[in-house]
């Protein structure tokens, strides 16, 4: 199949307007002629070999059981990682391994469907949830080589079936199993994220419950990522270099490498570990920590042989919460670095004004100032 059958900007003789860009993974994985919209600039293309980044592997068992020595050790490792690059791994996290396996397996159920079926869940322009085939509707260059399904999750009591209801409403009752699995998975991610927030609070020297309470009524995002093979992976990226605008990301990778982190002016790989979650902080938590902890530039690369899948849970505050650091983190030697803002303002900025990339948060702060928000 030629590229023009898959992706085109040619004029329609009937309508006199451009045909929409289409990314159909079932065909694109066999294409050797990569469309220019997917070719990234030379300075952003993936490196041939990326060394493995040595990130701390944090055993949560002792912390969960209330062991003071284990808690101190875990908080020390978390603090070191977050001051350096913001990434760490957690094991003994009490998330059911069968649930994780099922969540990965059910991704195939969705992403293996024909494009026309997946489009029933099409993400609308300006919204952050739904199905996206390479963000073709939003951008015309540096497109990511991936498909995603993003789900809205909230920990509020009256929304305890929000994920299940989304699948049933959008794709029909035959997808009830998927809805049940991803609802349960999100519930587990919510529990784990709040415990990690406790650990972050301890490591920063604030009250143990401060951040946990701040995020208890969170309105978060669950994202299923599918990266099909690419016959010329050196030309493109699965996800471009970016900082997560959210607060905390809890990621589970399948067995295929692809996550890379930019540290000390080099790209490093974080290899998959099925027993562990990869955790990193985003810009919103960087602001909550008054800059003590750093969000880190990262990306996803693709390969020419094997599809890659990942499950990403993005913890975000409730829409009414003001992002402002606790008083313990502000003093004469550590003045406020960022203005107050709300998560919906930053989310709107990333969806309608600026794609998530290297300078998104700085651009957001300027936008806040210019618009007196």
Automatic annotation (TrEMBL):
Keywords: Iron, Metal-binding, Oxidoreductase, Vitamin C. GO terms for biological process: coumarin biosynthetic process; gibberellin biosynthetic process; response to molecule of fungal origin. Coiled coil: none annotated. Its cofactor is L-ascorbate. It catalyses: gibberellin A12 + 2 2-oxoglutarate + 3 O2 + H(+) = gibberellin A9 + 2 succinate + 3 CO2 + 2 H2O. GO terms for molecular function: gibberellin 20-oxidase activity; L-ascorbic acid binding; metal ion binding. Residues 217-317 form the Fe2OG dioxygenase domain. Belongs to the iron/ascorbate-dependent oxidoreductase family. GA20OX subfamily. The keyword Iron applies. It comes from the Eukaryota. PANTHER family: 2-OXOGLUTARATE (2OG) AND FE(II)-DEPENDENT OXYGENASE SUPERFAMILY PROTEIN-RELATED (PTHR47990). This is Fe2OG dioxygenase domain-containing protein. It comes from Solanum commersonii. Pathway: Hormone biosynthesis; Plant hormone biosynthesis; gibberellin biosynthesis. InterPro entries: DIOX_N (IPR026992), IPNS-like_FE2OG_OXY (IPR044861), IPNS-like_sf (IPR027443), Iron_ascorbate_oxido_reductase (IPR050231), Oxoglu/Fe-dep_dioxygenase_dom (IPR005123).
């Amino acid at each position: 199949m030629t590229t023009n059958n898959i992706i085109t900007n040619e004029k329609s003789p009937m309508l006199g307007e451009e045909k929409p860009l289409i990314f159909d993974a079932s065909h694109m994985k066999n294409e050797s002629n990569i469309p220019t919209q997917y070719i990234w600039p030379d300075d952003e293309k993936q490196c041939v070999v990326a060394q493995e980044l040595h990130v701390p592997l944090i055993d949560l068992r002792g912390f969960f059981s209330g062991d003071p020595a284990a808690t101190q050790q875990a908080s020390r490792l978390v603090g070191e990682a977050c001051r350096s690059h913001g990434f760490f791994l957690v094991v003994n996290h009490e998330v059911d391994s069968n649930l994780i396996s099922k969540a990965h397996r059910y991704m195939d159920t969705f992403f293996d469907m024909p494009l026309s079926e997946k489009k029933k869940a099409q993400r609308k322009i300006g919204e952050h949830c739904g199905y996206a085939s390479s963000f073709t509707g939003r951008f015309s260059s540096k497109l990511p080589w991936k498909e995603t399904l993003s789900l809205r999750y909230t920990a509020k009591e009256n929304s305890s079936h929000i994920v299940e209801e989304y699948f049933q409403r959008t794709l029909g009752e035959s997808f009830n199993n998927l809805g049940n699995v991803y609802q349960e998975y999100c519930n587990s991610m919510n529990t784990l994220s709040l415990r990690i927030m406790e650990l972050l609070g301890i490591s920063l020297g604030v009250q143990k419950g401060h951040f946990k309470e701040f995020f208890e009524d969170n309105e978060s995002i669950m994202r299923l990522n599918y990266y099909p093979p690419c016959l010329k992976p050196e030309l493109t990226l699965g996800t471009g270099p970016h900082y997560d605008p959210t607060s905390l990301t809890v990621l589970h990778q399948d067995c295929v490498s692809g996550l890379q982190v930019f540290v000390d002016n080099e790209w490093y790989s974080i290899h998959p570990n099925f027993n562990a979650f990869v955790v990193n902080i985003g810009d919103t938590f960087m602001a909550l920590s008054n800059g003590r902890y750093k969000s880190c530039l990262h990306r996803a690369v693709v390969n020419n042989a094997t599809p890659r899948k990942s499950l990403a849970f993005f913890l975000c505050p409730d829409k009414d919460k003001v992002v402002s650091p606790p008083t313990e983190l502000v003093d004469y030697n550590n003045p406020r670095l960022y203005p107050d803002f709300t998560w919906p303002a930053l989310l709107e900025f990333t969806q309608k004004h600026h794609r998530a990339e290297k300078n998104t948060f700085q651009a957001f702060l300027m936008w806040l100032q210019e618009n007196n928000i």
